Amino acid sequence: MILKALKENGDMTISYYENGMLQTFTGRYHDLNLFDQTLCLVNKEKKRMTIHIAGIQQIH
């Protein structure tokens, strides 16, 4: 599911759980670290967000 969505070019919105709360972030794929099991996205303001893969609920 995750790898298929990463193949698409453009912005994606990811809904994920962090500290028990559902959060969302919109940005482009930057890096996938399989060792740490994290996904890094960058938004238009160049802000980086690192998300744990296990916490991802949905990719839009």
UniProtKB/TrEMBL annotation:
Pfam families: YolD. It comes from Terribacillus aidingensis. This is YolD-like protein.
